[in-house]
Amino acid sequence: MTAIEQTEAARPRGTRLPRRARRNQLLGAAQEVFVAQGYHAAAMDDIAERAGVSKPVLYQHFPGKLDLYLALLDQHCESLLQAVRGALESTTDNKQRVRATMDAYFAYVEDEGGAFRLVFESDLTNEPAVRERVDKVTNECAEAICDVIAEDTGLSRAESMLLASGLGGLAQVVARSWLHSDRSVPREQAVQLLASLAWRGIAGFPLHGTEHH
């Protein structure tokens, strides 16, 4: 019996929990199943079993599989956005801001729960509600980066948004590539390499009314 099976066997079924705690439990179980199996292969039976509850209990909280998936997606899109905003607000040194932002994406994809797969590698991207959420968080992360670029360079909002989209896309794609390469380069070194590349590009735009940081 695997460690997961042992945990499931030891978990009491039907234990009464406060609604919020039960919801979080169900979301945690659903994340494990969706990450492991993908949306289409996952079944509500699997999620209920993983959570140690009956299907009626699961349906009391989430009317269907898509509702459950979207709730998870909302949760993890918000986590990414807050991580990027936190990185940008962590310092006023722009070189360090670039590095912190790159690291935020690496940390996000490296999280052991694999939540990034629901956002960036979903097998449900043809579903409009999913596509809308992924596009929204991608845009909001770019807007957060754009705010800093526009303020510091004096470039127009449109120009700043293009650069911000480029930086965000670079961070996301490279972080995922790094993870799928089995972390062949240590994370600290990978982040530094990417941050150096990004900084050499963005630093070419002079600061607005002040000296380079």
TrEMBL record:
GO BP terms, alphabetized: negative regulation of DNA-templated transcription
Q: Which keywords describe this protein according to UniProt?
A: DNA-binding, Transcription, Transcription regulation
Highest taxon, organism lineage: Bacteria
Instruction: Name all HTH tetR-type domain ranges.
Output: 20-80
DNA-binding region boundaries: 43-62
Q: Name one GO molecular function term.
A: DNA-binding transcription factor activity
The protein's name: TetR/AcrR family transcriptional regulator
Q: Species name for this entry?
A: Streptomyces phyllanthi
